[in-house]
Amino acid sequence: MLSLGSGGAKSTKPSFVSYVTPEEIKSEKDPSKQEKHPDLLPGEVEFCSANPILKYTQDDLSQRGVFGTLFCTNFRVTFISDERPLEKKAKTFKNKLYGENDIPLMCVDHIYGVYEEKRKPITGALVKNKNPSKMIIHCKDLRVFQFCLTYSKEEDARKIFQGIAHHCLEEKSLKCVFAFSYMGTPSPSPEMPRKQETIMFDSPEDWTREMKRTKANCRLVIENENFELSQRLPKYFVIPLAIGDLFSYQGKGLPIWCWSHYSGCALFKASFLPVTQEDGDFQKHLDTMINAVAHNHLYSVKTEDLSESLPNIQDIQQSYNKFKQFFLIENSTDFWLSDVKWFSSIESSGWLDIIRQCLQKAVEVVECLEKDNTNVLITEEEGTDLCCVISSLAQIMLDPYYRTLMGFQSLVQKEWVAGCHAFLDRCNRLHLKDKECHSPVFLLFLECVWQLVQQHSPAFQFSETYLTVLSDSVHVPIFSTFLFNSAHHRENIMKAESPLAQSGPLSCPTVWDWSVQFDSKAQNFFFNPLYLEKVKHDRAVRKPHKPKHQRHLSLPSSAFKTPLKKGFFKDEADSLKKMLRVKRLSRWRGSPDAPAATTREFYESWQNRPLDYHGLLLPYLDGPAVRVWMQRYLRWIPEVYILGGGSMAVMTKLMELQNQVQDLKRALEQRDPSQAAELDHRPYLQQRLLSFDSSGRLSSSFPFAYTRSRNFKPSIPIALMQSLMLTDSLACQEDEASSVVSFV
Amino acid sequence: MASAPIAPYNSSPLGNSSSPNASRESLKMEPLADVAMLPGEERVIDKDIIYICPFNAAVKGKVFITNYRLYFKNTDSETPVTLDVPLGVISRVEKMGGASSRGENSYGLEIICKDMRNLRFALKQEGHSRRDIFEIIFKYAFPLSHGMQLFAFLSQEKYEENGWNVYEPMEEYRRQVLPNSEWRVTFINKNYELCDTYPTILVVPFKATDEDLRRVAAFRSRCRIPVLSWFHKENHAVITRCSQPLVGMSGKRNKDDERYLDLIREANGTTKLTIYDARPNVNAVANKATGGGYEGDDAYQNAELVFLDIHNIHVMRESLKKLKDIVYPNVEESHWLSSLESTHWLEHIKLVLSGAIQVADKVSSGSSVVVHCSDGWDRTAQLTSLAMLMLDSYYRTLRGFQVLLEKEWISFGHKFASRIGHGDKNHADQDRSPIFLQFIDCVWQMTKQFPTAFEFNERLLVVILDHLYSCRFGTFLYNCESARDSNNVRGKTVSLWAFVNSDTSLYINPFYTPESSRVLYPVASMRHLELWVTYYIRWNPRILHQSPVEQRYKELLALRDQYLKKLEELQLSDSTHLTNSSTPNTATPNQHITHLQTPF
C-alpha cells in the first residue's frame, strides 16, 4: 500500500498531492507479473480496462491509494488491486455477486470528473472532452469511489472513462440490462422448506389463500389474465363484491382490495379516473365505485386522496437527492465540516419529514380500520406509488404476519411487484431523459419500515441488515423483481416469443432467492435476534387470525355486530342506508379534520395498553423518534466507525447467548425431550447458528465494512469552532464572578 | 419516627413521575398517609390541590409535603397519577394568577425543577391555602436560606455498607502503582494549608520538594498546582490537573512553575509535555486581564499548548435552558433537529468528548499531559475523568465509576454546592451550571457507543443525577473536602453509594464484557451523538422509553440458567439413579418443571 500525502485528519485537503511519479511506479512493477482479470459471472463480458489506476482508500482517515486495474463489464465496474491480497480473511458477510471493489452498473448514481482541481458532474457532453485527472463515482448504495486516471496511458484512461460513463449514464434499452445476459443457474435451495416460501401473488390460488387468511368477502378478478382489461392492472386482483361492471374506463378507478380487517372492513386502493370524461358520467361512475367499497362492510367508507395529503413523487425525489448528499463523503475534511451543521442539514432535506408524513397517514388508515371499522379507499394518480407505501405500512402495523420475513416478502410481492409499482421508471434503470418519473418510492417504504423496526424490534422477525441488503438489491441488475413497470410489462418481456429472448424463456432469479447473493451463514444476519416469536401450538401454515387473542384495541362496533350483518342490510329499510350514506359522504367530502388531534386519542388508548408485539403496532412520530437509518447511510464512512462498539456489539452478544441456549436445549432434548419442550415453546430455528471471529474486534459498521487498520487511531474532529463562534457576552465571561486572586 | 425499623429503603429511583409505568410501581404506596417515608422524614402539611398535568387534563388530588419531598396523589379517578418530587430538586417556586385573574384554577403555583420539568398546581381561593403551601414549600425546599439543615443531615437511613469507604485515596493510588520512583505522595495539604479546595493527599513528581510545591502554588490560580490524576502503568505517562497560571497582563513568569512542569515531563522521558487548556483561545487570552492566562511558548519550551475550545459555565447553563424549552412540556415537533442544533447542547458534548479523546490518545501514545481550564474544577474535571474512563477499564465498573466520581469530582473540589445550589433560594445565581450533568451525559454517550464496555447501566446514571439534586445523601454536598470536613458530612450523612450498593443488581449492565487493556475511543461526531431522551424527556409519557434489548437478554440469561440447572439435575439424578433406583425426581419430572416456565 502506497502512502500518499502526510496523512492524518488535519492535513487532508480535498485536492490530492502525489509524491510518487508515474515513472517510479512503472519501474517498481514486477515485470513477470501477469495481467489480472476479474472473475466473470456467467454471461458477463469485459468491455474495457486500464492500468495502472490509483484507487484512493479512506481506511485510516488518511488519503492513501492502491494501484490496480479498472475494468468495465456489462455488469459492473470493477477494480483489481496490483497488490497481492494479504491473507484473505473470509468475510462473514460476503455478497457472491459483487465485492467491495465492484460497482454494478445500475448502482452507479453519479460520476464526477476532476479537472484542474474542480469537480464537475459528468454528463454526455463532458465525456467527449479531455480526460479528468480523477474520476469520482457515487453509488446508489452510498459508496464513494475515487480513481486517479493520470498514471495509465492517456488512451487507456480515455477508453475506461468514456466506457464507464457510457455504460452507466447514457440512455439504453432494457435489453442491455445485465439480467438479460446473466446465465446463472438457479441454485436449488434445499435448506428452505417449501412451506416457508414467499407468496408471489402471480396465481389465483395465492390470492384466494390471502383472502381466506384475512376472511375477505370480495371477488377475485381473473378477467385480466391476458391483460385485456388493462395493462396497468395486476394479472389477478380482488375487488369488492358489489362491482359488476369491470370494463368501463379501462379498469381505471377500480377499487383494488389490499387487506381485510377481522371486523370485516377492508382497505382498498384505486387510481384516478381519466379526467376527460363527461362530468355526469364521471360522478356516477365514482359513486358506483365508492358505494361498492362501502358495501363491503357496514356501508361505510373513508376515502383519502393521497396526492392531496402527501408529497408527490417529484418532491420525494428532490428531498432524497438532497438527503443522500450528506452521506456521500469524499474525505475527512468534508466529513468534519459537514458535522457542524449536521442536524439542520438533515432537516433541510425534508426526508425524515416525508417519512413521518407517510407513517402518520398510515396510522390514520389504521385508525379507520381498527377503531372505526370503516372501509378505507386510498387513491392517487396511478394508484401504484404512495398507495403502495401507505397500504403496505398499514398492513405491517395491523397484521403480525407481515412482520415475519416471509410475510414481509409476500407483502412486497402483493402490493409492489404484483401490484404494478413501476420499478423500472422509478429507479431510472435506463437513464431516460425524462426525469419526471424517477423517485425512490420503494426506498421510502423501506425507510418507514426501518423506523418501525428500530422502535419495536421484538415485533419483527427480520433485521435492519435485511432491510439494508434489500435496499441495495434493488440496484443489482440480476433480479426480475425490480426490473419491470408492471405485471404486463414483465410477462411481455419474459415470454419466450418476446424478441429479447434468444433461446427459450428468460428466467431471472427473484430477489427473494437470497442464496444467489449470500450463503446461508450470511443469511443469518437477516434474522433479528430480538424477535419474540409467537407461541405456536401447531406448525401448520398460519391460520386466519383469531380475533380474540390479538387486536386488543378494537373497540366494539357497538350497534352492528358482525353476526347481524348479513341479513341486516338486505332486509331492513333503506332509510338506515340513507342515513349511513349521509354520514359516509360527509366523511368523504372530507373536512380536513385536524388529523393530529383525532389520532392522538387513538394513540393514547393504544399506549395505555401493554404493548403486544403480535398485535397492533403504531410508530412513534415525535421529533426524537424518527431517525436516520444509520446502518444504511453511515456504513461506508470510516470516521464514524466505532471499533468494538455500536449496536452490533449487543446484537453479537445476543446471538451468542441464543446459540448457547439452543445448544443447551439440544443437549437437554437428547436426554429428556419432554422437559426441553416444556421450557421453551419457540420453534427450533436451525439457521440461527452463527459463529463470530471472536479474535477480531468488530466495528459498528459490521457486517458491511470491516476496519482494516491495525493500529486504530481515534478520529479527532476538526473545524470544531465553526459554528460555535458565540458572540454573546456570556462566552467572554469568567467562570467565577470574583476575579482571580493574585498572590504576587 | 427515628426509632422506626431501618430496612434498606427501596424507592423506585425513577419513581417521581406521572408516566404510566412509574405510577404502576408506586401503586404499592397507599394514598398519602401511608407513603413509605424515609427514616427521618416528617410530615409537614397536606392539602387538596389540583395538579395541572401538562400531558393530560387537570387532576384533582392531595398534596403531601414532608421535610424531604412533595408527594401528590390524585383522588378523582381510577388511573393513578402520582408525583414524588424530592424538595431538593426545586429551583424556584412562583405564585401564578390570583384574585384579579379570571377562569378556574386561577390561584396557581408553579414549581420549576432542576431536573427538566415544571410542576403547576391550582388551589382553592379560600383560607389562604395557596399562601400556606407556598410558604411551606419555599421554606423546606430552600432550608439553607432559612437557617435550617439539608435533609441529608436529618435522614436516619442506615445501610449495611458505609458508602463513605468506597473511595480510599491511598488505596486508589496503590492500584495505580503509586507511589513509585517517579511520583510521590505528599501530605503537605493535610490541613488544607497549601490549597483549600484540594484533597489532603496529593501525588506529585518525586523530585519536587514541598517547598517547590508552595512556590508553584503561588503561581497557580487558587493554589491549585499540577498534581497527578492518573498513571499509565505501561508507558508511565500521566494525566495531571491544575488551574491556570497567574500570568496576567504583564506576562509574568515563574521559574518554579516552569521547572515543576518540566519535572512532570521528565518523569517518563516525554519529549514534549502537552498542556491542554480546555478553554477557547480567546478566553484564555482574556483571562490575562484578571491575572490569569496560559503557558506561553517562550516560558515553557518543552511544552506544547493546545486549546480545546470548551466554553464556560454560563454558556452551558444557557444551552441547557434552551434544551429545556424544546423538550418540556412538549417536544418541539416541526423543526426538531434544527431546534436541537440551535441549543448547541450536543455540540458542547462533542467538544468535551473530543477534548477527552485527545487527552486519552496522547497519554496512551506515551506522552504526559497537563490539563487545566481557569480554576481547574469544571472543564478540567470533565476532561480528566472522561479521559480516565477511556483509558482505564476499572473506572467502567460499578465500583470504579464511584471511585472516579469521588476522586476527580468530589475530592478535587468541583463546586457542587455552587453549581447546583443545594437548599439555596437564589435560583438566578450565576454560579449555577450543569457541568456535572454534562459530564454524565458524555458518559451516557460513551455507554451508547460501547454498550458492552460498562458494568453499570443507564439507570445508575439517572439515579446519580436524581440524587445530585435530592439532598438525601451527603455525597454531592458542599464545594470541597475542607468544607465537607468542617461540616462532618461523613459522620452525619449517608453516602449515595451506600444506597446504590445495597442493591447493585438494579444497576448492572447485562451486556458487560470485561476487557481490561482496552482503550475506548468514542466517535465525537454529531452523526453518533444523540439526545439522551430517557433522561431529558423522561417526564413525557408520549415518548418511546423502553429499550427491549436488555429485557430480552435477561430473559435469555434466565432461560440459559434454567437449562443449565435442568441438565445438572438430570446428571445428578443419573448418578443417584445408579446407586438408588427410587429417586423421586424421575418419578414426577413434569410436576417439577411447571413452575420454571418463562413467560415467552
From TrEMBL, chain A:
<dbReference type="Pfam" id="PF12578">
    <property type="entry name" value="3-PAP"/>
</dbReference>
<comment type="similarity">
    <text>Belongs to the protein-tyrosine phosphatase family. Non-receptor class myotubularin subfamily.</text>
</comment>
<dbReference type="InterPro" id="IPR022587">
    <property type="entry name" value="MTMR12-like_C"/>
</dbReference>
<dbReference type="GO" id="GO:0046856">
    <property type="term" value="P:phosphatidylinositol dephosphorylation"/>
</dbReference>
<keyword id="KW-0963">Cytoplasm</keyword>
<dbReference type="Pfam" id="PF06602">
    <property type="entry name" value="Myotub-related"/>
</dbReference>
<dbReference type="GO" id="GO:0016529">
    <property type="term" value="C:sarcoplasmic reticulum"/>
</dbReference>
<feature type="domain" description="Myotubularin phosphatase">
    <location>
        <begin position="201"/>
        <end position="560"/>
    </location>
</feature>
<dbReference type="InterPro" id="IPR029021">
    <property type="entry name" value="Prot-tyrosine_phosphatase-like"/>
</dbReference>
<dbReference type="GO" id="GO:0030017">
    <property type="term" value="C:sarcomere"/>
</dbReference>
<dbReference type="GO" id="GO:0016020">
    <property type="term" value="C:membrane"/>
</dbReference>
<dbReference type="InterPro" id="IPR030564">
    <property type="entry name" value="Myotubularin"/>
</dbReference>
<keyword id="KW-0703">Sarcoplasmic reticulum</keyword>
<dbReference type="InterPro" id="IPR010569">
    <property type="entry name" value="Myotubularin-like_Pase_dom"/>
</dbReference>
<dbReference type="InterPro" id="IPR011993">
    <property type="entry name" value="PH-like_dom_sf"/>
</dbReference>
<protein>
    <recommendedName>
        <fullName>Myotubularin-related protein 12</fullName>
    </recommendedName>
</protein>
UniProtKB/TrEMBL annotation, chain B:
<dbReference type="GO" id="GO:0030017">
    <property type="term" value="C:sarcomere"/>
</dbReference>
<dbReference type="Pfam" id="PF06602">
    <property type="entry name" value="Myotub-related"/>
</dbReference>
<keyword id="KW-1003">Cell membrane</keyword>
<feature type="region of interest" description="Disordered">
    <location>
        <begin position="575"/>
        <end position="600"/>
    </location>
</feature>
<feature type="region of interest" description="Disordered">
    <location>
        <begin position="1"/>
        <end position="26"/>
    </location>
</feature>
<dbReference type="InterPro" id="IPR004182">
    <property type="entry name" value="GRAM"/>
</dbReference>
<dbReference type="InterPro" id="IPR000387">
    <property type="entry name" value="Tyr_Pase_dom"/>
</dbReference>
<dbReference type="InterPro" id="IPR029021">
    <property type="entry name" value="Prot-tyrosine_phosphatase-like"/>
</dbReference>
<dbReference type="GO" id="GO:0001726">
    <property type="term" value="C:ruffle"/>
</dbReference>
<keyword id="KW-0963">Cytoplasm</keyword>
<dbReference type="GO" id="GO:0005770">
    <property type="term" value="C:late endosome"/>
</dbReference>
<keyword id="KW-0472">Membrane</keyword>
<feature type="compositionally biased region" description="Low complexity">
    <location>
        <begin position="8"/>
        <end position="23"/>
    </location>
</feature>
<feature type="active site" description="Phosphocysteine intermediate">
    <location>
        <position position="373"/>
    </location>
</feature>
<keyword id="KW-0904">Protein phosphatase</keyword>
<dbReference type="InterPro" id="IPR011993">
    <property type="entry name" value="PH-like_dom_sf"/>
</dbReference>
<dbReference type="GO" id="GO:0004721">
    <property type="term" value="F:phosphoprotein phosphatase activity"/>
</dbReference>
<dbReference type="GO" id="GO:0004438">
    <property type="term" value="F:phosphatidylinositol-3-phosphate phosphatase activity"/>
</dbReference>
<dbReference type="Pfam" id="PF02893">
    <property type="entry name" value="GRAM"/>
</dbReference>
<feature type="domain" description="Tyrosine specific protein phosphatases">
    <location>
        <begin position="343"/>
        <end position="389"/>
    </location>
</feature>
<keyword id="KW-0967">Endosome</keyword>
<keyword id="KW-0966">Cell projection</keyword>
